[in-house]
Automatic annotation (TrEMBL):
It holds the Pfam family Folate_rec. GO terms for cellular component: external side of plasma membrane. Keywords: Disulfide bond, Signal. Belongs to the folate receptor family. This is Folate receptor-like domain-containing protein. Residues 44-222 form the Folate receptor-like domain. It comes from the Eukaryota. The keyword Disulfide bond applies. The keyword Aminoacyl-tRNA synthetase does not apply.
Length: 273
């Protein structure tokens, strides 16, 4: 990040040398906003399971291990995610068939992303909930990731097409061991994922109430699993979207210096994408 900050400063100096314009308070504000992206990108959701700020967690294992260098989850949260005890939701909700291990693996990856990823800043929104005050919505998920997830779960069963909204907490009782149960008789409502959702895109976008937005792999998009030794590819995705949002916020302030600053925006986008 230091390298990017140095490049930002050099670009401003060069632009002012070329244009002859003074290094004004507006330009200083814009430069500060660009550097502020570091804070905007690397944040954690506000909830009872997330850390206040991301940091190294070298003891993360299995599907949560990709985030060990910079994580919003603790090892305890990760262990609960891996054992399906983090939320009161029964993944084996249908009597016709217990969820397959390959399907569970992808849901665990999804949970690890939600709990551990520090790259959700551009998509966070405020909500009212006992366990969290923020969620993310419309995070760009790579189409190939979505397709792999759907393929793994196609023959498994679900009683709902929106797991965030279609469970009734009032129905939780001792007989269900504290887990959610379907709004109606699961033996009647349960159907294979492939019949309920029909397409991978519909599945990924609806299952968690539009937390995900499926995009082509050629666009900046999130990975649910990656080799941490090669770095986190989602960092650049968050950077691109964060920078775009700062650009939209500050473009109204560019009128006195529209040419040099738009050129700067162009240069910075090429740096961060």
């Amino acid at each position: 990040m230091l390298v990017h900050s140095v490049i930002v400063t050099i670009l401003f100096v060069l632009l002012n040398m070329i244009s002859g314009l003074p290094y004004t308070d507006i330009e200083k504000k814009i430069e500060g906003d660009i550097r502020a992206n570091d804070v905007y990108e690397y944040i954690c959701l506000q909830s009872t399971t997330h850390k206040e700020a991301p940091g190294a967690e070298k003891n993360l294992t299995d599907e949560c291990s990709p985030w060990k260098d910079n994580a919003c989850c603790t090892p305890d949260t990760a262990i609960k995610a891996l054992s399906f005890t983090l939320y009161s939701l029964n993944y084996d909700m249908c009597p016709q068939k217990r969820m397959s291990e390959q399907c569970k693996k992808h849901f665990i990856r999804d949970t690890c992303f939600y709990e551990c990823s520090p790259n959700i800043g551009p998509w966070k929104e405020q909500i009212e909930s006992a366990s969290r005050s923020q969620r993310f919505r419309h995070v760009p998920l790579c189409k190939s990731e979505c397709q792999d997830w759907f393929n793994a779960c196609a023959d498994d069963y679900t009683c709902s097409d929106n797991w965030s909204k279609s469970y009734d907490n009032s129905l939780v009782n001792n007989s269900t061991n504290g887990t959610h149960i379907c709004e109606r008789d699961p033996s009647e409502r349960c159907k294979p994922f492939k019949d309920v959702f029909e397409t991978a895109e519909n599945f990924c976008e609806k299952i968690w109430d539009h937390s995900w937005s499926v995009v082509d792999d050629s666009e900046p998009c999130m990975k649910l699993s990656f080799d941490s030794e090669k770095g986190n590819p989602n960092d650049l995705v968050a950077k691109k979207y964060a920078f775009h949002q700062f650009y939209l916020i500050n473009v109204s302030n560019l009128s006195p210096f529209i040419v040099p600053n738009v050129f700067l925006i162009f240069c910075m986008q090429k740096l961060f994408i």
